[in-house]
Amino acid sequence: MVDKYKGIAAISGVLVMLSTALAFYLLFENLFDVKIQWISLLFLLLSEAILMAKFLLIRKQTIIADAHISSSVIHIVLVFLAAVLFIVFKEEAAKMFILINVVGLSVLIIADLLIYYTQCHTAENGGEQMDAQKVLYHCISQVQQLSLRHKGTSFYTDLCRIEELLKYSDNTAITGVETKIGELISELSTLLSNENVDSALIYTKTNDIAATIQERTAQMKHIKRGKY
Fold first, then answer.
1. What is the span of the domain harbouring residue 21?
2. Prediction pTM value
């Protein structure tokens, strides 16, 4: 969240908390004489402080951020409803009210932790996918350049086959084989630049690259099975 909006959120949060305290003070003449009343005020202020803290900690508006805010808003509403019910109908049931609020806070914390875990997991997968896409795109680019350079030669078909294998490779994760593929393509490029090289070496290298890509495909299937 931008700094100026953080300032607005902080001021708004403080005003809301002051308004809540003032409302309780005006509604109840002997606010601190009745245990359930000041305990209700305490839990309401705590839930509002948690909401304000979330506003201050959120850096940008996302679905995950909305989930964090929504969980606190729901928590505040439930605390308020519980406070009204206990003040009106069960003034002496302070222990039960405290227990309910402690459970409510626990549920809120667990919900926020689950949301945070989802956020981290999504970000990690997204970053890994971007890394895989960059590596594979670089490999495809290299092979395309080789294909254009050696179009019409006996190696062109094998180069096109490698390009197709790379294009249709799963790019949602890194397996570790990508580096090996890149190295093999670089070695192939070096061989192709040598006019006196034995054709058998080039065919062996193209077969090695194709086999390594297929090895990566098998590893990706294993990774997918592990995720689900």
1. 1-91
2. 0.47
What is the token pair recorded at 228? 């689900």
> Structurally, how many domains does the chain consist of?
2
Query: Tell me, what's the pLDDT at 228?
Result: 47
CA distance 139 to 125: 21
Measured distance CA(130)–CA(121) in Å, rounded: 14
- Whether the Cβ atoms of residue 166 and residue 139 lie closer than 8 Å to each other: yes
pLDDT in tens, 124-156: 555 556 666 787 888 888 888 888 888 878 888
Q: How many angstroms separate the CA atoms of 125 and 109, rounded? A: 24
Structure tokens at 18: 């002051």
Gyration radius (Cα) of the chain, Å: 31
Question: Nearest to residue 202, comparing CAs of 163, 166, 156?
Answer: 156
Residues 82 and 131 in one domain: no
Quick: pLDDT tens for 44-100: 888 888 888 877 777 666 666 777 777 888 888 888 888 777 777 765 667 777 777
